[in-house]
């Protein structure tokens, strides 16, 4: 596999003129970086393509994350469990996510809890070994691809659908193998006025986490009808309450 990857990269670079240095390469001088980026991206897409999607998955990628309380969490903290599900059509569809979490305090007056994608899928020291926010483009929080914002729990649960997200399952910036962390505190969305705010939103302790892995469509299809129904009900209710008498 490594040999294959090496050969693929060499092929990609030689096609872009980097390891050739001949006349033809000069014609790409306008945008050599763009050219390389596109070729490397295509290579990655081709490498990841067979393991994630197929005709059976209708050219759609699915991923799951089985949330468990951090192994070093104090017993008096909320023990959050559940599932985060992802769906994205190949190759350029927007990522959709379903959050289905349980174990928050039943009567919480908290304004919200932060959820992010973190860089590493390493949970060997609980959620603390997952490192910082996944930040491939070296930007400030809250502009990381996995800055999902704040979530309110209701009856101890968070059940939420989000579409049109920045993160992706495909290509060189795939989130597969990275982790999701559920925090104790609210995300200040970069407005905290200190360094940590621009790195992690001062979201506090890591309550629970999981590693994102490839899955089939079953869990998504099982959860989607309920989520869609709830959204419809909420939109109808909002419409009722905002309509003038
Ligand atoms: Cu986080
Ligand atoms: Zn962030």
UniProtKB/TrEMBL annotation:
Keyword set, alphabetical order: Antioxidant, Copper, Disulfide bond, Glycoprotein, Golgi apparatus, Metal-binding, Oxidoreductase, Secreted, Signal, Zinc
GO CC terms, sorted: extracellular space; Golgi apparatus
Catalysed reactions, as listed in the record: 2 superoxide + 2 H(+) = H2O2 + O2
Name of this protein: Superoxide dismutase [Cu-Zn]
Documented EC number(s): 1.15.1.1
Name of the encoding gene: SOD3
Co-factor(s): Zn(2+); Cu cation
Annotated function: Destroys radicals which are normally produced within the cells and which are toxic to biological systems. Protect the extracellular space from toxic effect of reactive oxygen intermediates by converting superoxide radicals into hydrogen peroxide and oxygen.
Species whose genome carries this gene: Pelodiscus sinensis
A single GO BP: response to hypoxia
Cofactor binding note of this UniProt entry: Binds 1 zinc ion per subunit. Binds 1 copper ion per subunit.
